[in-house]
Amino acid sequence: MLGKKLVTAQKRGETRALCLGLGMVACSMMMYFFIGITIVPFYTKSVWTTETVCKVLRATIEDKDPCLNSKGSEDEGATHYPCLQVWVNLTASGQEVMLYQTEDTLERNPKCSYVPGNSENPKEVQARIETIASNFKKYQTFPCYYDPGGTQTNVILSRIYPPRGLLFTFLWPTLMFTGGCLIIILVKISQYVSVLSAWQ
Fold it and tell me: 153-186: b or e for each residue (b if 16 or more CB lie within 10 Å)?
């Protein structure tokens, strides 16, 4: 009687472990799919793939510029902010080009190197832009990214999804997938050992 209870408990444990392993595999596959349709397209779309060194030529703050939407037209409630323009010397080619914070900055407003959020406080934005301009004048040499194919003649300070960040994004679903597979394999080994023991 006790042996039957132990066998039943063992089968229940194996079933739960198997369900856990399958669930982890299924969740990891969903995460892979989500990353594939959201993050990967932005990574592959970016043409600023090569890192080089940029040297600041000038960093100026122009008159207040309206924050434009993706279509390029002004919103009725568009915020206005000082337009920071940073021009750098691209070490790779020796050209004078404009620097943008990220790929998204160029799409939101190609006139400015930095674009604040629409809902930010104007005074805080003013102070932040002045601080950024001051830092560029203080630290004139820094790494940046350019388009080796020549499609874009400007450069960006940082990529939204760098290669290291993309690998880190794939790390968690990979660990979950590996853990799920290991659980399934261990359950199958346990079941195989139990069958062999029953035949002896």
Answer: ebbbbebebeeeebeebeeebeebbeebeebbee
Cα separation, 66 vs 129, whole angstroms: 15
Rounded distance, CA 94 to CA 134, Å? 24
pLDDT of residue 73: 46
Q: What is the pLDDT of residues 73-90, one digit of tens each?
A: 444 455 678 899 999 998
Please say whether the beta carbons of 58 and 101 come within 8 A. no
pTM across the whole model: 0.69
67-71, Cβ contacts within 8 angstroms, sequence gap of 24 or more? 67/108, 67/109, 67/115, 67/116, 67/118, 68/108, 68/109, 70/107, 70/108
Question: Each residue of 98-133: pLDDT tens digit?
Answer: 999 999 898 888 889 998 877 667 788 888 999 999
The two three-digit tokens of residue 173, written as one number: 């679903």
